[in-house]
Amino acid sequence: MDTAKNELFETFPFFKLTPDLVCIANKEGFFEQVNHAVIEKLEYTEAELFANPISTFIHPDDKELTSSERKKLINGNPLVNFQNRYITKSEKIIWLDWTSIYFPDQQRVFAIAKDVTSRKEIEMEIEEDYRKYKNLATNFKSRIEKDRKYFAGELHEELEQLESVVKRDVDWINSQMPEMSDLLK
Questions:
Q1: Is the pLDDT of residue 8 over 70?
Q2: Which of 12, 23, 44, 178 is least enclosed by beta carbons within 10 angstroms?
């Protein structure tokens, strides 16, 4: 590690004091400098973080997307508000929201991230509740439609039975009282 990178973190106390995760990575995808927040959130020592590619710490489901975004970053497209999951040393899953810039002349990525795990958990809870309520509403609507068809069928059957009884009664009256006037009939 050269002194210029260390000077950045040493010169500006912001990098040491910020609760945000701040890091410098090389073009090959290894951390070269991290602030204390990175170590604290990922739960690895600085030596462990530097010894492994950054992709080692990324959740398996997010590796492909992260790799794709990293390629865009190296090709000059700043990474803004990119969210992915990391797995900590204690195997907790955390969500990080990254903003990164690649400096081609130094072949270094400067990145800053916020831990958005609690927000993502709330979002996922809301989405799950929405799916549950949507399913309940769909089932409720389906049940109402089924009940409506059932009641319509029952009502139709009742009316047919009533019509049959009335017709039979009228026929019986006509057969028992043939002298009945047309007005009464």
A1: no
A2: 178
